[in-house]
Amino acid sequence: MALDNLSLSLIVDFLGEHSVNGVFSKPFALSTTDYALPYSRYEPNGDLNKGTIILSLSPSNPFITLSFDRYQKVDDNSPFFNSLKKLSFGRIRSVEKLQGERVVTIHIDSDKRDITEMNSAYDLIVELFPNHPNCYIIAYPYGKIVSLCHERIDLEKGVLLSRNAEYAYPKPRPVLTNDVHSLEEAKPYLSNACFKALEKYVAKIGDLNKALNELLSSKTLYLVGKNILPFHFGIEEAVPILPSQIYSSFVKDQKEIAKNSKIKELLDLIEKAIRIAEKKLLNLKEDRQNAQDNLKYLEYGQVIYLYQAEIKKGDRVLERDGYSIPLDPRFDAVHNANRYFKKYAKAKSANQILGNLIEKTKDEVEYLRKKLLEAKDGTPRDIQELKSELLEEGYIKEKQGKKSAIQKVSKKKTYVPHYLLLPSGTRIGFGMNGLQNEELTFKIAKKEDLFFHVKDYPGSHVVILDGKQDSEAVKTACELCLFLSHLETGEVMLTERKNVKKNPEKIGLVSLLKYETLNIKGIRRGSVEMFRKALKN
Predict the structure, then answer these.
(1) Residue 128: which of 29, 59, 79 has the closest Cα?
(2) Stated pTM of the model
(3) Residue 22 predicted with pLDDT over 70
(4) Mean pLDDT, rounded, for 331-335
């Protein structure tokens, strides 16, 4: 999605109204492409107001906006992000948009109290061009680029945008006015989404001039699907939106993005291990199919023995009973038959060994997929224990020298699972990693307690504790299984804990000696809210 010039003008006006004379504090990253520049400003009445200017340099959806919400920080040590810290404690002098272009400049006076500050002022220039957005910091009095997000060098076009170069603004372009006489004349001034909306609106009301006047006089932004438009264009689903609501409209769960960014290395490690295990499983299945095909050698040997009197050295093939069996001309019938019997014995042995390896690799894939869910949903404590588990399983290499936090956790003797307390007083336990699952199922749960697990899908151990197994508790436990596996519907297995057998190959994997299944067709809204609260504990 590309912001329309008219929409961007309204956003810049809002930025200027609320942020000019504000003082920047330290910036922070919201994601790998989004940056937050918090500021505070004293109003004439003495009130202190705070806000955050947000720059999104996502190629598919670049934008700038202002927000009054709170966000979670993401670790970022890139040169560009570190250079944004130069703007800390600088005062916002003005915010301007280049005429007819999606280029916004924030003029900033540097912190005069800092004796180490050598520059008198900065310009933060944000180019919101679709597919190749960019951001530059210009330092004064030198007027040179001191930092930028992406270097642009095109010698053929004479473009050189890098550190220590001068920034050249694009040429200003004409803007839309109500002097245009046709939709085709208006098209170059509008984004595709805005033009299509205008086109339909003109067709609906039959008056281009009226439509243009309404569009140009609009002071309100509207959210239509994934597009921000400068006018409602008579669209029923158009929702008025303030510039301060834009980021939360585009990014539904910034905390989830921040959390995933913090554990990106762990997620990448698990995803890589899954790819390796899945490729291994595919190769094993191909090898097993070849081994199964080679079981035919038993019949080859038997047919050769049956017709050995007709075979002599030098024969190259035996055609009998629908078989066409290759022969080694150097050997007699008995020798050829024994060669096939040996091939059969090798294939039979390989088939059995490969079958066991396939089952183990399937367990590994299921285990790793489960770890991926646990990493995304777990609390910091859960994730730290998960790293300890992966260290024990060999997926994370042990660091030499000073003991890491992971190694310290691995020496713990108990891993406390999570608990959900129902209004009836029933207590449901669930694990958020393999270590917690085993602690819950094999150390905390009693033999008669009910154990739950999603059928044929990675998931957590869920146990109704203390023998309180009423129908509401059972339904809630089934819903919890689906919720922790990121499923809306599905089959859930339930059995007494005494029927659960530990898998010695992987921490937290189990097999059920016998079980019943319940088909759950949806998770109640109240249950979801209760589960989300329990996950935070």
Answers:
(1) 59
(2) 0.57
(3) yes
(4) 93
